[in-house]
């Protein structure tokens, strides 16, 4: 129990100590710190104002000093100018006419101009122009102003009409001497690109080559486009027209191909190949009459293909006289072909010309190159005609 009591006493003591500690009041700082802070701020503001006033006074004094220096320099120049003018005895007020130039000058330039004017004593009226020099330009830039002076003129007692003018340009020309050219600057090479416009024929030739290459690559659409471009440039280009018609015929665009060839025939009536192509399309479409009409204007052609198609269409249309003419033309071109003789024999037989027909049948059999059916037909007709 004594131990427990002792612990309770210690606990009571600790609680009393904590209460006494909490009852102790902490002294608060005085209000002196805020007063000091205000005082410091006011002092800083006063110091800044004093420094600003002092800097402004220095700046104002510096500007006044520069103005005084500039005024003194201008006064010095004017005094020197008057002294030099008085020394040389030149009075601008007595001159008959004066000219005012706003040019910066120096005392050295004025003295030089006056010295030059002394050498013009024998001239009735002279004008001396005082030109600017580099020294005065530098001074004018430093002072920030340009000094203006009047041109001095001097009148001489003798009368003459000669006027001598000394100008800055003349002085500059006299001072500048030509220098010898020692370095030779090579001329720069230039590249000139010009466009050369091809003639329609040359352009068509290039496009024909491109179209043929496109056809070799089986690029039919590109080839068609190139052929159409050629015909736009050169409408009478027969090769492009035939190639394009062949492509359209291959696509079974029969009417478009015929129209295209008809335009070419209108431009070149004796174009046998275009007539032959158009006639073949008509004949294959069962239009023998149109094929015959297309080919008949070139019935004197030496083309085997033209004469063969013309003979076939003529025979089919019972145009036997035209067929006989075509077959005889074929016999002239290829006399050993039996079917040409058989064609003549059939047309003569149809016209009732039996004697020449029998001779033609014999010639066709003698060539011995007819098909079996054609050979049998020729022999049968010979028997029927009394052979």
TrEMBL record:
Positions of the TPR repeats?
304-337
* Highest taxon above the source species: Bacteria
What Gene3D superfamilies does the database record attribute to this sequence?
Answer: Tetratricopeptide repeat domain
**Which UniProt keywords are given for this protein, alphabetically ordered?**
Membrane, TPR repeat, Transmembrane, Transmembrane helix
InterPro entries found in the cross-reference section: TPR-like_helical_dom_sf (IPR011990), TPR_rpt (IPR019734)
Segments traversing the membrane: 37-59
Protein name (Swiss-Prot/TrEMBL) = Uncharacterized protein
Q: In which organism is this protein found?
A: Cognaticolwellia beringensis
């Amino acid at each position: 129990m004594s131990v427990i009591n002792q612990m309770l006493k210690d606990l009571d003591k600790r609680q009393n100590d904590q209460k006494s500690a909490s009852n102790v009041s902490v002294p608060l700082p005085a209000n002196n710190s805020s007063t000091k802070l205000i005082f410091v701020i006011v002092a800083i503001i006063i110091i800044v104002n004093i420094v600003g006033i002092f800097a402004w006074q220095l700046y104002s004094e510096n500007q006044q000093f520069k103005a005084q220096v500039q005024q003194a320099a201008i006064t010095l120049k004017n005094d020197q100018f008057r002294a030099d003018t008085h020394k040389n005895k030149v009075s601008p007020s007595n001159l008959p006419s004066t000219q005012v130039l706003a040019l910066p000058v120096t005392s050295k330039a004025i003295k030089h101009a006056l010295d030059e004017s002394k050498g013009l004593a024998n001239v009735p009226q002279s004008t001396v122009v005082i030109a600017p020099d580099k020294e005065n330009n530098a001074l004018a830039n430093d002072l920030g102003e340009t000094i203006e002076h009047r041109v001095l003129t001097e009148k001489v007692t003798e009368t003459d009409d000669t006027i001598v003018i000394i100008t800055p340009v003349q002085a500059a020309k006299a001072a500048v001497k030509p220098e010898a050219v020692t370095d030779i600057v090579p001329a720069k090479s230039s590249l000139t690109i010009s466009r050369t416009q091809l003639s329609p024929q040359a352009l068509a030739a290039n496009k024909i080559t491109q179209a043929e290459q496109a056809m070799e690559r089986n690029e039919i659409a590109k080839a068609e486009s190139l052929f159409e471009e050629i015909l736009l440039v050169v409408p009478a280009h027969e090769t492009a027209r035939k190639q394009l018609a062949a492509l359209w015929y291959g696509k079974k665009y029969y009417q478009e191909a015929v129209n295209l060839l008809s335009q070419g025939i209108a431009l070149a009536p004796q174009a046998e190949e275009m007539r032959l192509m158009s006639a073949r399309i008509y004949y294959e479409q069962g239009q023998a009459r149109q094929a015959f009409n297309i080919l008949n204007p070139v019935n004197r052609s030496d083309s085997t293909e033209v004469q063969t198609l013309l003979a076939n269409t003529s025979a089919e249309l019972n145009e036997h006289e035209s067929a006989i003419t075509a077959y005889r033309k074929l016999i002239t071109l290829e006399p050993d072909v039996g079917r040409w003789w058989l064609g003549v024999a059939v047309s003569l037989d149809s016209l009732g010309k039996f004697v020449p027909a029998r001779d033609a049948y014999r010639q066709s059999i003698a060539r011995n190159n007819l098909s079996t059916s054609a050979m049998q037909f020729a022999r049968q007709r010979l028997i029927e005609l009394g052979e």
